[in-house]
Specification:
Layout: E1 2-7, H1 13-27, E2 31-36, H2 42-46, E3 50-58, E4 61-62, H3 65-71, H4 73-76, H5 86-92, E5 101-108, H6 117-127, E6 131-132, E7 137-140, H7 152-178
Parallel strand pairs: 1-2, 1-3, 3-5, 5-6, 5-7
Antiparallel strand pairs: 3-4
Helix pairs in contact: 1-7, 5-6
The structure holds flavin mononucleotide.
Flavin mononucleotide (FMN) binds next to helix 1, strand 3, helix 3 and strand 5.
Length: 181
């Protein structure tokens, strides 16, 4: 079973979570690919039995060109835009047929009022025909540039294993069912 984890990152935190999720999926027996949103072509996505997409929460949801710019003032100035993130990638994602599975996660600050990118990611994936498995999960950063809160890496790894294990069991189920008299 192939698991593809796609991430957007500005300070490396969501990438680290993506790597831990993939490590967990591998623990569960999956073949894994971790790619940044810039590298996540339709071909890469189509190879996935389970697609897991993660984004940093910015201004309560998925980042926008101007909020990404705020994360990189040295490169683009305080009013500069950075064109592409998960929000834009989702718009360009080709629709998929029934039965394709996906999951969404985000990184975010430890506040109940901090919003969530994962909800928007899950919504975008659903709009393209994916079935979302599990609940969108959130991984907490202590500050905008990190680090991840203690224990979040381990939680991400366990989440990856759980998702991959669930999908592997679903993929096996029709075969087992077919063997019933
Ligand atoms: C411009 C900007 C806006 C942000 N807005 C939020 C927010 O509304 N809620 C939140 O939880 N975190 C917010 N953050 C913190 C990000 O979630 C944090 O930088 C991110 O999780 C780090 O992940 P990354 O290194 O993968 O980019 C913001 C960060 C930036 C740079």
């Amino acid at each position: 079973m192939d698991v593809v984890v796609v991430y957007e990152t500005h300070f490396g935190q969501t990438r680290d979570v993506a790597s831990e999720i993939a490590a967990g999926a591998k623990d569960a027996g999956a073949t894994t690919t971790v790619v940044s949103v810039d590298e996540a072509t339709a071909e890469v996505v189509n190879a996935a039995d389970l697609l897991i997409v993660g984004a940093p929460t910015q201004v309560l949801g998925m980042s926008r060109p101007w909020s990404r710019g705020l994360a990189h003032p040295q490169e683009v100035g305080t009013h500069g835009d950075i064109a592409d993130g998960v929000r834009e990638w989702l718009v360009g994602l080709p629709a998929v047929g029934a039965g394709r599975r996906a999951a969404a996660f985000d990184t975010k600050l430890p506040s109940a009022l901090a919003g969530s990118a994962a909800r928007g990611v899950a919504h975008g994936l659903r709009q393209h025909g994916f079935t979302i498995i599990g609940h969108p999960d959130h991984f907490i950063v202590e500050d905008a540039e990190g680090p991840l809160r203690e224990g979040e890496r381990e939680r991400a790894r366990a989440w990856g294993a759980e998702l991959a294990g669930a999908v592997a069991a679903e993929l096996r189920a029709p075969i087992a069912g077919g063997e019933q008299p």
